[in-house]
Write a structure and sequence with these properties.
The protein is mostly beta strands. It has 7 helices and 25 strands. Strand 4 and strand 5 form a beta hairpin. It starts with 7 loop residues before the first helix and ends with a strand. Bound molecules: the ligand Nc1nc2c(c(=O)[nH]1)N[C@H]1C(S)=C(S)[C@@H](COP(=O)(O)O)O[C@H]1N2 and molybdenum atom (MO). Ligand MTE binds next to strand 3.
Length: about 400
C-alpha cells in the first residue's frame, strides 16, 4: 500500500490514521521552512540538489512559486560571476559569437509561461515491477513558471547558420563527475524547433524565472527553456551553443534519457533520445494513504498535455471503483500552450474503494494508458495515476 516509496515519516504525515472529517478541506499541507537557497522541497538527494515539492503544495497555484519548483541537478551549482560570463555560439555558423549578458539584452525580450517536467517524473511507480535507477521521484518533479529571456532563433540569426545545420547543442557550465571524466550537462534540439520564432519561440534563453533573475538552482545567469520537451533539454547554466549537422554527443543526449529495457547494447543503439514529453498527470490531494469516511470526497491534481503547441487537456477522469466508472474533473487553471492544467473533482467513495484512479486525454490524441512498459531508467511513467486511500 505504499507504491510511492514514501518514508515512514511522510506516510505518517500523509495519513497518520487520523480520519479527515471535514471533506471540503483537503489534507493539510506540511508547513516547512525554505532552505538557504529558498527551497521548500522534499530533497531526494542533497548533493547534488534533487528535490520535489509536497504534492499538496504543488497544486496550490497554476504558476508554481519558485520555492515549490522542483530542482534536478547532476552536480553542485556552479559559481558564476555574471560580469565575467559570456555565451559562446559556434559550429556551423558564418559568424561565431561571444555574447555577454548585456549584449544578449539587446535582443527582443520574450515572456512565456511554460511547464517543465523531468522525464523521470513518477519514476518510483516502476519499482513494483523491478527497481529503476536514478533519483527516486514521486509525482512532484514538474512545475509551471513564467520565463523571460531571448529567442534562440534570434541568436542563431545573428550567428547566421549554415546550410548544413541540423541540430543545436547546448552545454552547461556545471562539472559532472562520471566514472573517469568530468563532463558538463548537455543536449541538443533539432534545428527546426530551434528556429521557431513568434510569441512562444521553439527555445528561449531565459535569464528570469517568475519575474526574478534565475536562482542558482535553476541555472543562473542563463538557461535554455524548450517548451514541449522533457526537462533535460532545458540546459541550466548555459555557456555554449554549437550548431551542428549531428545531434549532441553529450552523454545526456547520446546515451541517457532513452527508453531501454536492459543492458543490451542493441537496445541503446535502437532507441533515440527522448525529446517531446507525452501527456501525464497525477492526483495531488488528498495524500496517499489518507483515511476518509464513505461519502463525498474532494480531490485535486494536475494534467500536462502532450508537448505540442496545439495540445490542450481535454478530459480528466477519476474512478473510485478500479476503472469501471469514471467521473469527469473540472479544470481550474488556464488553458495555455505548453502549460499544465490544474483540476478538481468531487467523487463518491464507498467501503469498497481502496484507491482513486486518474487518467486524462488531450486534443492531440494523447492519453494516459492503463499501463506502460517498464524501462530500466524509469522514464515517461504516464500510466493511470493510482492513489491508495482507506475508506473507514
Ligand atoms: N546544466 C544542467 N542543466 C540541466 C540539468 C543539469 O543537471 N545540469 N538537469 C536537467 C534536468 S534532468 C531537468 S529535469 C531540468 C530541471 O530543471 P530545474 O532544476 O530548473 O527544475 O534541468 C535540466 N538541465
Ligand atoms: Mo530531468
Amino acid at each position: 500500500l505504499n507504491p510511492y516509496n514514501l518514508s515512514r515519516r511522510e506516510l505518517l504525515i500523509a495519513g497518520g490514521g487520523i480520519a479527515v472529517t471535514n471533506l471540503s478541506i483537503p489534507a493539510l499541507a506540511v508547513e516547512t521552512t525554505p532552505d538557504k537557497l529558498g527551497k521548500d522541497l522534499i530533497f531526494r538527494t542533497t548533493d547534488p540538489r534533487n528535490g520535489e515539492p509536497e504534492l499538496s503544495n504543488l497544486v496550490k497555484s497554476w504558476v508554481t512559486p519558485t520555492k515549490h519548483f522542483y530542482v534536478r541537478s547532476h552536480a553542485p551549482n556552479p559559481q558564476i560571476d555574471v560580469n565575467k560570463f559570456s555565451l559562446t555560439v559556434e559550429g556551423k555558423v558564418r559568424t561565431p559569437l561571444t555574447l555577454t549578458m548585456n549584449q544578449l539584452s539587446q535582443l527582443p525580450r520574450h515572456h512565456l509561461t511554460a511547464t517543465l517536467t523531468c522525464a523521470g517524473n513518477r519514476r518510483v511507480e516502476f519499482n513494483s515491477e523491478g527497481k529503476v535507477g536514478g533519483v527516486q521521484w514521486a509525482a512532484g518533479p514538474i512545475g509551471n513558471a513564467k520565463w523571460s529571456g531571448f529567442a534562440l532563433a534570434d541568436v542563431l540569426k545573428k550567428a547566421e547558420i549554415l546550410e548544413e545545420a541540423r541540430h543545436v547543442w547546448f552545454e552547461g557550465l556545471d562539472e559532472i563527475q562520471r566514472t573517469n571524466v568530468v563532463i558538463p550537462f548537455g543536449g541538443s534540439i533539432p534545428i527546426e524547433k530551434a528556429m521557431i520564432t513568434g510569441p512562444i519561440p521553439g527555445a528561449v534563453l531565459a535569464d528570469q524565472m517568475n519575474e526574478q533573475p534565475l536562482s542558482p538552482d535553476h541555472g543562473y545567469p542563463l538557461r535554455t527553456i524548450v517548451p514541449g520537451y522533457v526537462g533535460a533539454r532545458s540546459v541550466k547554466w548555459l555557456g555554449k551553443i554549437v550548431v551542428s549537422d549531428k545531434p549532441s554527443p553529450n552523454h545526456y543526449l547520446a546515451a541517457a534519457y532513452k527508453l531501454v529495457k536492459k543492458t543490451d547494447p542493441i537496445d541503446w543503439t535502437e532507441s533515440g533520445p527522448i525529446y517531446r514529453y507525452p501527456i501525464n498527470g497525477a492526483i495531488a490531494t488528498p495524500d496517499a494513504g489518507t483515511v476518509v469516511p464513505a461519502g463525498r470526497l474532494d480531490i485535486s491534481g494536475y494534467v500536462l498535455p502532450t508537448g505540442l503547441r496545439d495540445s490542450r487537456a481535454q478530459r480528466i477522469e477519476i474512478s473510485t471503483d478500479n476503472g469501471i466508472n469514471w467521473t469527469v474533473a473540472k479544470t481550474t487553471g488556464q488553458d495555455s500552450a505548453f502549460c499544465w492544467q490544474l483540476w478538481n473533482a468531487r467523487v463518491k467513495v464507498t467501503s469498497r474503494t481502496n484507491s482513486l484512479i486518474m487518467r486524462a486525454f488531450d486534443s492531440s490524441g494523447g492519453f494516459m494508458p492503463q499501463r506502460v512498459p517498464w524501462n530500466a531508467k524509469g522514464y515517461l511513467q504516464n500510466s493511470w495515476y493510482r492513489l491508495p486511500i482507506t475508506v473507514s
